[in-house]
Amino acid sequence: MITSETGTPLASDLPPRLGSLTFHGPLSEARATRMIERLAAAGPADVLDIGCGWGELLLRVLEAAPAAEGVGIDINTEDLARGRALAERRGLADRVAFVEESALGTDRGPVDAILCLGSSQALCDPELPHDPAAALRELRRLVRPGGRVVLGEGFWERTPTEAELAGMWPGATVDDHFSLGALVDLAVEAGFRPAWIETAGAEEWEEFESGYRYDTEVWLAAHPDHPLAAETRERVDRQRSSWLNGYRNVLGIAYLTLVAVA
After folding, report:
1. How far is CA 144 from CA 36, 96, 191, 206, 259, in A?
2. Which of 87, 119, 145, 162 could join 92 in a cystine, given CB atoms 3.0 to 4.6 angstroms apart?
3. Contact between residue 139 and residue 149 where contact means Cβ atoms under 8 Å apart
4. Does the predicted TM-score (pTM) go above 0.90?
5. Phi and psi for 173 in degrees, rounded to 5?
6. What are the pLDDT digits (tens) for 167-195?
7. From CA 222, how far away is CA 228, in angstroms rounded?
């Protein structure tokens, strides 16, 4: 193991994080392109990305809508730094801000367009169970009438069995998600019209799940005796098992392009 003069492991020697992912979710290039085209066609002046991560989708929206400016908010410092570097590299640094802050109760609206992919929990009270209805009401508050929201939200493809729930995340229950129909109904109740409804396919899921762990698995194979190997191995083994033995072919991701009712 290579260390600095102070004995701290160098960054290049540490387990990598998500380097093989373009998007932090089961989203293909083709689907992302179509979603961006629909969003950019509305000519947004300002775009808010909630739980932006490194903001790949936000940056692509700004490239497709050259009059727009964007703000991405997240609480992960490393992801935000990656987003700023990407923006600088692509000549977008003067049109986008990556801000480390909570989305709960944010006053960064109203805006013309919102991205919220796999991050609706950031709009909910962390002391309460995740509530997509509450998140949708918040999204409606944050977007102008006629504005667009692209929401990526989990739903049950079918009711999970007890064995499948036991294999998922700790404390998983059937109440953690709605069916797709019930989720879309919640969007309508919150003041949206569902302009486009689509769901991630099996190939998108496999690309995401494998890409999520790929760099770490390769690192573990090369560093089996590293001081961080045991905890890293335990973490990725648990993640992989929760997918293969729990939510695979049970949990879906819906991508809803929503238009705010005037």
Report:
1. 18, 20, 11, 36, 9
2. 87
3. yes
4. yes
5. -135, 165
6. 999 999 999 999 999 999 999 999 999 99
7. 12
